[in-house]
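Tutorial sheet, problem 5. The two components below are modelled jointly, 482 residues in total.
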Amino acid sequence: MYSSAIVEEAVVRLLREAECMLPADVRAALSAALENEPEMLPRSQLEVVLRNAAMAAELTVPMCQDIGLPVFFVRGRYDPRMERAIRRGVARATEEVPLRPNTVDPVSRANHGDNLGLWMPPVHFEPSDARHLDLAVLPKGAGSENWSALRMLNPAEGMEGVRRFVLECVVRAGPRPCPPTVVGVGIGGTADQAALLSKRALLRDLGSRNGDGALAALETSLLTDLNSLGLGPMGLGGRTTCLDVLIEKASCHTASLPVAVSLSCWALRRAFARVRPDGTVSFRQEGGW
Amino acid sequence: MVTLKELKAPLSEQGARALRAGELVSLSGELLTARDEAHLRAVRMLRTGEGLPFRLEGMAIYHCGPIVRRDGDWRVIAAGPTTSARMDRLAPELIRLGRPRLIIGKGGMSAEVLEAMREVGCAYLAFPGGAAVVAAEALPEVIDVHWEDLGMPEAVWHLRAEGLGPMVVAMDAHGRSLFKEVEEGVAKRSALL
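Model answer (structure tokens):
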């Protein structure tokens, strides 16, 4: 079994990589958006964003001051030391990277100073029989998280209802979640599962498509629709409003059709680690969860 | 690369009124960061006539909660803009009582803020959201820090700027807002989908 010191070290490195290095697929999508943009104003926004990503990687500093809340996904055999190791890793990364202390008490608004707190960071555990431990982190900034939404649709509204809700979410958010955004959508499950799926969807590579043909077609057609809106980079107008739409589903109650949307700003930050029983750890940022 | 109009802060009312929506600018001089909690405290103090511990008139307010690190002196590590709309409720009063000349942020602000800006002579500059390292590079000095009890993101950081940009004049002192114009177009097109 791996030691908790190895997990703690892996968490520090996961956060450093996720916060400072924009994944290759996201960089490629932003570069493609720049190439496709004829107007000076939206071009200027994309140029700065790409230059910023290059500087952050070179200097190993967070690409955005809103380092987000680090949402963790863990797959493996449950070990109670694991959660403590993740918490220690987050506190250390806050000092060492450094990260901005973002967590506060929701009532008093007092800042905890270490990015920890009650139920913080969120850790979503997915039990598995494998002997290795898989970790993923998705740091989620508040600018985009504040536009998250859930609706319990009437099942008769079907996929057309889902399409309308996603459009409504992106239009309502406007310039505020730092477009071009990546739209994570969770369909089905219970209300809480739909919300979680909409986040988990953001771990997928941009350009990948859901295995369900109908959902894959909806991902592609929604992307075309969203980019016809003209909201553009930072909401100043332009051709690219969204970099991709990624949809995940779960089975649901026969009387329900939950749909949840999680928007990610252009700075879609993610990193994955695999801790093996012999103590070796490998890291990556693409390839999905 | 496009050429940017170079601004210097503090700025005069005339200087703020000379800015027109759509212009690309950069800023040198001084600025003050302020987010939700600093807006609450500043407005409360201005209402009661209690003086602020910093000069606000003529200044640039930056909606930003930076990452700063103290190695001897304070150093700005990452300092992109935060969502300005969160300050919509308090900004009109802050603008009228405090008379800043520039507001820097992302995502734009409400019609009520635009009206206060027109009245007082103040312009809104949009800095690309998330471009925190590009911004930090143009903020080479922490002149002072106020209200540290609010925590690192919410404190008022008094910073020196050197060519902070590119920024877009997105709301001007003549009642024009690029965000409003784009959102109207988006609403029209989305109704057809």
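Marking note: The longest strand of chain A covers residues 242-250. Full credit if you identified this.
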